Amino acid sequence: MIRLATSNLDIAYDDRLIVQNLNIAIPQGKITALVGSNGSGKSTILKTMARLMHPSGGSVLLDGRSIHKQSTKEVAKQLAILPQNPTAPDGLTVAELVSYGRFPYQKGFGSLTKEDRGIIQWAIEATGMGEFTDRPVDQLSGGQRQRAWIAMALAQETDILFLDEPTTFLDMAHQLEVLHLLQKLNEMNNRTVVMVVHDLNHASRYAHHMVAIKKGTVVGEGTPAEVMTPDVLREVFNIEADIVPDPRTGVPLCLPYALAGEPAADKVMADTKPERILTAAGA
To answer: What is its subcellular localisation (predicted)?
Structure first.
């Protein structure tokens, strides 16, 4: 089932067209990863689908209606977005940050209701942040901060969650911490997750659906096995890579070994062995 899709979507910065005639559909209740090289347009597409940017042509459809023609509060009750590297005011606690997720449900300047407080506490516990409820966000580790922001998004009670490179600048342990959390939220709550992912192997491991983008155009779309192919990676990332199954899960893993058009690393090493060099020199 599809709740969110683009229809002939065009996106431009000033007079420069970044994305043209884009048509993609986001599977409901699945994790979708947008992948591509730097400057490919993947973050721009995510922001436009999340209604942070306005398209120059075409539309983003949510339940068959243009998302940009729906009210802000109406959309905020259906989707939440975690931008890249969000920052909170100094001294703001985890509980205070997560409470902002209830804004779409408040009327005027109304205070939090008992229901709001219950949902805030649930979001904090669901992300494993219970022991940090009263801790200032700026005193948390990178992984803890990301979990706090995800808790705020959860407090919106939306079916769709957007994340723009949620593991950027995190070490390997914190990357896995965040990705495991997103996987858990998807499995337990059937939440649709759409994220821009830098690491191809993370995308393949955690996403059900992948969209490979080059210069604002879809080059490959489907399951990780359908997208993680040597041809797609050569076209999108300009690399030569071997694709091997993960020994634990069987999902495809990318092992890059050269830039497209350059000799493979093993050939370069063979050509630089001492005996080859001596032979070439006529020794």
So the answer is: Cell membrane
Burial classification of residue 13, based on how many CB atoms lie within 10 Å of its CB (0-12 exposed, 13-18 middle, 19 or more buried): exposed
| Amino acid at residue number 228 | M
Please tell me the distance from the alpha carbon of residue 219 to that of residue 37, in angstroms, as a whole number: 12
The model carries a pTM of: 0.88
Averaged pLDDT of the chain: 91
Q: Which residue carries 């993947």 as its tokens?
A: 42
- pLDDT surpasses 80 at 263: no
Structure tokens at 29: 């209740």
> Which residues touch 20 (CB under 8 Å, ≥6 apart)?
10, 216, 217
CA atoms of 46 and 11, how far apart (whole Å):
11
pLDDT above 70 coverage of the chain, percent: 92
- Alpha carbons 244 and 27: distance in angstroms, whole number: 26
